[in-house]
Amino acid sequence: MKKTVLAACCALLPLSALAEVQVSEVWARPTVAGQGAAGVFMQLQTTEAATLVGGESPAAQSVEVHEMVMQGDVMKMRRLENGLPITPEKGAELVPGGLHIMLIGLQKPLQVGDKVPLKLFFEDAQGQKQTVETTAEVRPMMPAAEQGETHLLHAH
Ligand SMILES: [Cu+2]
Questions:
Q1: Does domain 19-139 match CATH 2.60.40.1890?
Q2: Which of 33, 51, 67, 141 could form an SS bridge with 83, CB 3.0 to 4.6 Å?
Q3: Distance 46 CA to ligand 1 centre (A)
Q4: Per-residue pLDDT reduced to its tens digit, 85-120
Q5: Confidence (pTM)
Q6: What is the CA(146)–ligand 1 centre distance, in A?
Q7: What are the sequence ranges of the domains in the chain?
């Protein structure tokens, strides 16, 4: 369905700035054949309060915003129905074991080095929608363990 968003509301709110959302450090884990979904992780910053409401990717049938919750002794993931609120003070951190973007219905397994195009949909407090286009780089599960410890010495 096509939605047309008009900027008419801004005439009534001359002082409100549009939220400017920055997406960085976008990466995903590789998957194996038969694995239908993958988590994508990133850092989010915004100049005004905004909400990450969803996304879209040619690599997957659907894209959802998920959180991890404890149910008894089991860690489960759950879709954030109302999206993920982001504030200028805190931003948001999407990390393994926590908040993440879920690619559901993968077209093919994600391999290390793949670049997955991803559109993220945000909405600010005034209901203004915006789309941020980014790319998730598929990285090894545990780069530090794979490369050994010596790479830490090369920091300087
Ligand atoms: Cu998930």
A1: yes
A2: 51
A3: 23
A4: 999 999 999 999 999 999 999 999 999 999 999 999
A5: 0.79
A6: 25
A7: 19-139
